[in-house]
Design a protein that fits this description.
Oligomer: single chain
Number of helices: 3
Largest sheet: 3 strands, antiparallel
Helix content: 55-70%
Radius of gyration: 24 Å
Low-confidence stretches: none
Mean pLDDT: 83
Shape: elongated
Order of helices and strands: EEEHHH
Distance between the termini: 55 Å
Structural class: alpha+beta
Length: about 110
């Protein structure tokens, strides 16, 4: 998430966040912060208290982002798939679908 001139990265399972000049830097910094958070919990025998999930708002942002990426990946996959299929096969598939729809309509 961008805040001012920096990118803020937040761990959704722990109360840990960090920042950087770009996404890569922010994630690297977050990974180090999570590592230190867990080490500290282990050293202080507090491992049972470290799980503190983020508010629903942040999970919703994450899920929306994941869904957008999934749709984008699916679109790219479909585009690449259609590039490998000839027009003749596409038209034959359309004809097969129309035939199947007509058959089901009369059944």
């Amino acid at each position: 998430m961008k805040e001012g001139d920096v990118i803020v990265a937040r761990c959704l399972d722990f109360t840990v966040s960090s920042h950087g000049d770009d996404e890569k830097d922010a994630l690297k910094s977050l990974a180090e912060a999570v590592k230190e958070y867990i080490i500290s919990a282990v050293e202080n025998d507090a491992i049972d208290t470290i799980f503190d999930p983020a508010h629903d708002r942040y999970w919703r942002i994450y899920n929306e982002s994941e869904a957008k990426q999934a749709v984008s990946s699916l679109k790219n996959f479909i585009r690449k798939s259609f590039k490998t299929v000839s027009n003749e096969k596409i038209f034959q598939s359309i004809a097969d679908i129309k035939y199947a729809q007509a058959f089901v309509a009369f059944a």
